Amino acid sequence: MYAVFKRELFSFLNSLMAYITIGVFLLACAMLLWVFPDTSILDYGYAELNGFFSLVPFLFMFLIPAITMRSFAEERREGTYVLLATRPLSDTQIILAKYLACVVLMVFALIPTLVYYYSISELGLPKGNIDTGAVIGSYLGLFLLGNAFSAIGIFSSSITKNQVIAFAVAVFLCFFTFSGFDSISKIFELQALGSVLVNFGINEHYQSISRGVLDTRDLVYFITFVLVFFGFTKLAIGGRKW
Amino acid sequence: MSIKVKSLSKHYGQQKAVDAISFEARPGKILGFLGPNGAGKSTTMKMLTGYLAPTSGDAEICGKSILTENLAVKELIGYLPENTPLYNDMYVREFLSFVGETYHIANLSHRVEDVIKQVGLTPEQHKKIGMLSKGYKQRVGLAQAIIHHPSVLILDEPTSGLDPNQLTDIRALIKDLGAAKTVIISTHIMQEVEAICDEVIIINNGKIVANDTISSLKNQYKSNSLEEIFRKLTG
């Protein structure tokens, strides 16, 4: 399994695509955070990172599908999946290896943003006036969110030969699971169903972790979420007719 | 018996791609798998290698069932798929090391070196796979199939699209490998069958129509040309 993980990661790092998508992600982060007046911290007036953490999920909706879209779709198109499937590896190991490679790349994209923590703490009055606990919680939330989106992306990639379709399906599913349930729950706002539906969405759990409180319910939610999409992926791969 | 196939079937909806075929193969012999396009040759091979799950029936590779001991069977088989799919963005050595790692081969760099020498890839070993000519890609395909010393080799049209010089080389290599291993190759070239195979199986519409040595087939159908026999059985 480690061999497949290594191959996946290196093929990302050897291709320009990974650098371009990560570059675009970081550029978008920087522009939204410091330049565009609507979302800029400088115009906002408070030295805190809340704006950043509410924007990144929406950037992740595009970054992560762009990373994951090729994982199975490309193998299907090129017919190279047979090279993996006839090795002494189970489907689960192959899925896990590809998933972990995407997660590592997601972390690579996140690491440079740590510099904003330093900037904000320098901008605070007095210097260093920043809620470190909340920042750690928010990064953990982003990491878990990235895991959930990667699982969605891997699944979308496994159902089609076409990378563009894989990308589009993944973006839709990410958006829907992140904020779709919130919107639906508003329809049933005054009923019990509403508060149940909110809990299906990622946003609710992401917000809860971002507050800096690590609740096992949120952790269980994310783990279940990833496992469910693993299951779907395994079904899609197991019924191969390609 | 290192390969024992017991009424193996694969159905795609109503269509029976492979219809309850049974055969056996022994070590040290090269078995030719013949049949028109769409007869079920590749499907049978894919089932043996564990890529496709059979609809019904079973097969044993060195006494291990492809249904229940899937991973153990995959360790025993070397497989060259049809059209030789390869990761074009990898370097030859990088790719072979990757394949070796999936089998947890000890002393891997040494083994990669040996395999490269064995299939005659030495002059091209530092190139990217995507830049190789068809003949060399085929050699990379063979190298990845034999790197883990499999006792069974399954080669799906290993010589398609090669020039006459490459043909002779690859055939000699297959014949060499066949001395110690069980080899199944599928092909459309009858001269090739006569040149390297000990036994042939002719398959048509998912059923086996002949399973014998070349000489006894010729005796049976009183014909000197395998091509004629093939046309008679599958036409």
UniProtKB/TrEMBL annotation, chain A:
PANTHER family: MEMBRANE COMPONENT OF ABC TRANSPORTER YHHJ-RELATED (PTHR30294), MULTIDRUG ABC TRANSPORTER PERMEASE YBHS-RELATED (PTHR30294:SF29)
PROSITE patterns attached to this UniProt entry: PROKAR_LIPOPROTEIN
InterPro entries: ABC-2_transporter_component, ABC2_memb-like, Motility-assoc_ABC_perm_GldF
Origin species: Pedobacter polaris
Subcellular location(s) per record: Cell membrane
Signal peptide segment: none
Transmembrane region(s): 12-36, 51-73, 94-118, 138-157, 164-181, 219-237
Location (main, coarse): membrane
Key words, A-Z: Cell membrane, Membrane, Transmembrane, Transmembrane helix
Protein name: Gliding motility-associated ABC transporter permease subunit GldF
GO CC list: plasma membrane
Membrane protein topology class: Multi-pass membrane protein
Gene behind the chain: gldF
TrEMBL record, chain B:
Superkingdom assignment: Bacteria
Keyword presence, Secreted: no
CDD domains cross-referenced by the UniProt entry: ABC_DR_subfamily_A (cd03230)
Signal sequence extent: none
GO molecular function: ATP binding; ATP hydrolysis activity
Domain ABC transporter residue range list: 3-230
InterPro entries with a match to the protein in the record: AAA+_ATPase, ABC_transporter-like_ATP-bd, P-loop_NTPase
PROSITE patterns tied to this protein: ABC_TRANSPORTER_2 (PS50893)
PANTHER family according to UniProt: ABC TRANSPORTER, ATP-BINDING PROTEIN
Record's protein name: ATP-binding cassette domain-containing protein
Species of provenance: Pedobacter polaris
